[in-house]
Amino acid sequence: MSRERSASNGPPKPSPSGGQTKTDVAVSEIRKRILMGVYPAGSRLRQNHLVQDLGLGVTPVREALMQLVSEGLLLRRPYAGVVVSNVSRTSVVESYAVRKLLERHAVELACGKLTVQQFDRLAEDTERMEQAHAADDERRFHDANYEFHMGLYDAAGNAHLRELIEVEWRSFPRGTFGLSSERRERSILEHRSILRALQDGDAAAAGAWMVVHISSYEQHVLGLMPPSVSSTGEH
């Protein structure tokens, strides 16, 4: 771093402590059912059926479908409506392999360029992750996590590299696979390990910790997916 600075029985209920809306509940439940294979790749999701399945109103279900389409987990196809996209174990492994290469390099580049202000923002993002975790607010947690990563990659000073990383993130958008409480805690610890390496000016260690961080989330994602999901998304 620069020396400028020293499958359930029913849908979950909204949690007031976490600020979860009915749309959040619908997004979470639809996402979980897709990953568990209840709604397999290529299957059509009809809004009226989802309203009955989830026991929620039309508005939150419609908004959830719009959000999941924007994330890429669902596709809107002519004459077919909304269908589940192909998220396979192979596609997850391939995407995370690319992420490890790109993001490790970005962190190593950033290590010698970080200013005091940039480092402080990264530390603040990690603090916001802790606060969101304590409040069980997954949306705020994801937002702070995104700001941490993209702030770090911005500091690398390579716009093309930053763009490539953003493309990979969009292929498996934040929030697509959800986060357990244990995974959130581990993510915070990994961020702090990255920060310590950056503060020490150890580019190799910072890059290595980023690989550990991405690999552990990859295993979390794969653990949520049915073993029977093949490389083509068939069951």
Which outline best applies?
elongated
Distance between the termini: 48 Å
How many domains, in number, for the residues?
Answer: 2
Q: Trace the largest sheet across and list its strands.
A: 1-2
CATH architectural group of the largest domain: Up-down Bundle
Using the coordinates shown, work out and report the CATH topology of the largest domain: Four Helix Bundle (Hemerythrin (Met), subunit A)
Q: Would you identify the CATH H-level superfamily of the largest domain? A: GntR ligand-binding domain-like
Radius of gyration: 19 Å
How much of the sequence lies in strands comes to under 5%
Give the H and E element order. Answer: HHHEEHHHHHH
Quaternary status: single chain
- Total count of helical runs of at least 4 residues: 9
**In total, how many beta strands?**
2
Structural category: mainly alpha
Low-confidence runs of at least 5 consecutive residues = 2-18, 229-235
Written account of the structure:
With 235 residues, this protein is mainly alpha-helical. The chain has two domains: 16-84, Winged helix-like DNA-binding domain superfamily/Winged helix DNA-binding domain (Arc Repressor Mutant, subunit A), CATH 1.10.10; 89-224, Four Helix Bundle (Hemerythrin (Met), subunit A), CATH 1.20.120. Helices cover 63% and strands 3% of the residues. A two-stranded antiparallel sheet has the order 1-2. Residues 2-18 and 229-235 have low confidence and may be disordered.
